[in-house]
## 1
Amino acid sequence: MFSYKIVLVGNFGVGKTSLIRRFVENSFSEEYLSTIGVSISKKTIGNATIMIWDIEGHTEFKPIFKQYLMGAKGFILVADLLRQETIEALQNHIDLCYAVVKDAPICIALNKCDMPHEISQREIEEISKLSPTVLKVLKTSAKENEAVEDLFLTLDTRIKESIKAD
Amino acid sequence: MQEKLLSFICQKSQISYILFDEDFHITKTFLNESKIGSDIRETLWEIVGFEEDILREQKLEIPMILRENEYYDLFVEPFSNKEKKLFIAYMQQKSKDTHSYANVLKEINKKTLIFDTSDEKKESRYYQEINKRLLTLHVNSEGKITKVNDAVTYFFNTQNSALQGVHFSKLFTPQSSKKEAKSNIFVAKNSFGKEIFFHADIIPLKNRENKIVENIIIAQDVSYLKEIEKELQYAQEHDTLTGLPNRHYLLRAIEYREKPTIALLDIVSFHKVNEEYGAHAGDMLLKHTTSLLQSLLEPQDTLTRLFGDTFVILFESEKNRTYIDALVNKIKEAMHKNPLYYTQEDIITATLTTVVIETNDEPISAKELLKNGEKALQREKLLKKS
């Protein structure tokens, strides 16, 4: 058995906590309570325990605290399909993650896909090209449990491969 | 003794602590004694990922961790012990004020999120998108720039400060050359030196005395309209079959010449070609004649198709009559030597009727000159027939 850390990064209100709650507890709440500081959940998959850091989202007045990203083996970047600015912020989040952990694998969740949204396949392809270490860009819904497992498991598989290789 | 002192201090300051060794096994804890010997990472999940840093004796500080509705800061650092290398992780519980602060932030975020997904926000975003494409300049009563938006600095690839005090006319020139004509179309060169056409709306800002104190100029890129205008003008002034300029173009071009000289050329019995071989052969002959004429003319001379089978050459002003007559003869000869090979069997040789019209010192309009030319050509054709 071994443990590793991943961090969910994104603007506030994009659904980071909801994605974690869906993955860890298979539950969902409509009520929005923003995360202040950091809250850690854990989930065991196979022979590994994932420590999932749910950190305070980036806001106009409060940047993401770099210390929370240290020691992570991978990142899940989350954007809200209904708020364009959260998608535009992805590049900054990638830069921040790499400044702390170089070349860490990244999965990107375009969340709230259960709501009517406007994003083309070309835009999704462009997002996937934001960095060469982006493994997957998925349209997710914590509410409808869409692609949530795929999101976490894709990252888990890549991290386990890299730990094995080391 | 050291550990007893630690317990005392921690109790006094409401700090919880755990001592652990290099294998991350707990040696002492405020928690249940049964935890001793277990892996600290099973208790303190925060440590996962930081193992190497801790063993390198780097101090670790993670603020504002939320667990079971309580906030605490975590610190990990080496703990001096003579017998064994140890580390201490201590957690300082946050005060009630921190909870109040967190609740305020949560409330702000909630309200911001509601606004972010509202129609009001969407609308303001659309306006922002529009503004990004519009150049906005504040210009004082002297015409000097006092303020610009990001679209302007981006367009000229310069700093905001570099544009302050610059006269508007230094950057934007009216498109119309006629002074009396008031035009809202301006031209400005972008950072790549390309001329861009703008439609500018000028909004005067007046003070209480109704005096204009400042103008806000909103300029919109209308280059695409200029492109359409150019295309339309080209279509209006060119012949679709041969691609040559037509009568409209010729009339405009003649007006620009001081003493214009023109030569009119007409294909003899062109209608017979159409009747005998069909309209397609007629079209081919016109194209063939065009390329032959183009090959013999100098770039300064203008070849146009007036109508049907009549072509007009407008000569450069300095060309004298001897040169023109020699050229016309050369054209006739070339036409004779270079028939149109319509099919292997059908070889069409065309001849030309030509007249040259010069102007003297008396002013003559383009229309009159052309009319004179057409009359002379008609006479020449009749003469040839008789």
## 2
Amino acid sequence: MHTRLTDSTERRAHGFLLALPAIFWLGIFFLLPLLIVLGVSFLSRGSGGIPAVLPFTLQNYTYVLDTYNEVIVRSVWIALITTLICLLVGYPLAFFIRTRERDWVKQFALFLVILPFWTNFLVRTYSWRTILGPEGIINSALLDIGLLTEPLPMLNNQFAVIIGMVYAYIPFMTLPIYATVSKFDFRFLEAAHDLGANDWSAFWRVILPMTLPGVIAGCILVFIPSVGTFVISDLLGGPQDQMIGNWINTLYQGSGAHLPRGAALSIIMMLLLMFALLIYVFFGEKEGKR
Amino acid sequence: MATLTQTPTFTPDSRSLQGSLLIRRIGKAILWITPVFSYLFLWAPILLLILFSFNAGRGTFAWRGFTTQWYSNIFSGTLGAEARFSTELMLNALSNSLIVGVTSTLIATVIGTMVAISMTRGKFPGKRILDGLLFLPVVIPEITQGVSLAIFFRVIFEFIESITGARILPGVGTIIIGHVVFNVAFVAIIVRARMSNMNPRLEEAAGDLGATPWQTFYRVTLPLIMPGVIAGALLAFTLSLDDFVVTFFNKGVGSDTLPIFVYGMLKTSVTPEVNALSTLMLIFSTVLVGFSLFLQNRKD
């Protein structure tokens, strides 16, 4: 009895010691910076090289909410559209992969989804310019056929940004859905049909509820980076399509730099995302208890 | 008995039967069209990129014949026809990328594996908080992590300068620190997944047979989780090589990594050399990913 007790306390101490380096690293270089941003967001702009000075003020928040409300609403809107399209594409895709009979086909289909995700993000985003541009593949093909007399405006606008984001984030949607779909037992579907359900109600009342955790996880994983998009809107969007991330960058460096306002905008974005995460945790708990 | 005969399920009227047949057809069509479209969508930009890296025409999207000139330009030191591409700058960026990638991967793999073991085997107060802390860098947008770390460094460096007068500038070191943050989280996730599949009795057995905790770790636990550790390290290395946002905010003068260099090229105007360079990077990461997936899926 006694030895077991010391054994477990020893293990407890070991367990904690092993976690210490990670706790230190993430605490100092991740949590502390976030707290500093929170602090800076309540300060005033300093002069010269000093980023921020006292006194405390709420003006950054009122200014940012006043000036960037359109940007914030648009970013959330674009992120929601992106999430929806990713869901509409990713859900059938996950089922397609799941229903492949041969194992190597399944693995290969999955590999084809993952691989683009690992190639240089900048270049494959930029590659869309050669597809969507006024002299790009689509426009020149349509002009050659004679379907168009003038190139369609598909670049440097919201359309291009959404295409780029859907493209970048589809794996984030497909993989979590695939994870739940791959565990889905198709006998449930047979049972539903035997009990008189047609395809429509079998989907809404059996398949969807059982794969919902993956759907919610996928939506969160797409929505969060979408709201924080910086590179895609920078490379594919016009000046009118810049997202919260681009404005944080503008406020952080360059001639228009105003660190406290940039910090306030970051905090507002994080609050938005925390809200999304809370929804996820709430639904996740509910699913877990079921 | 009467209730059984009354159930309408086996005698649906023809209209609802037609309706459900239509739904089934639409469903089947969607199940076929969407994947074809998705794969095309996912691969078109990459295939075009590879194709145009062999295109003789510069600065145009039309096909002008096959060439490998851009590939030789990358290494020959030629500045290119429009003097935009510098091999020296590229090699400098490549070496920075490798230094950052290797260093951050090593640090992240060690402390990520440690925290993964601690999370699966240890019991201590605050474990759930640590769980959240490890999860956060994965879900928080990169720009938030990048900017907040940059602000942190500015504040800290300012503070150090005001006390000691020594001026510290951001550079490769600050990039590494930032990369370790997200890499630790990813390594921990993968190693934990591997550990959760492992039988804890094996470790207990080693202890019962007289192995010290260190011997147990070195001769039982580590060999068993090694595929996970290597997969985690490969993932960390790939993420680090590809990272743009965190690097962008925490780099200093002369510490450009490959993605930063590529970004500069893209911002001025796309050069075919960038296409060629990206194709080479694609081949490199394909090999890495293939290897990593192979290790993750390998049965013991």
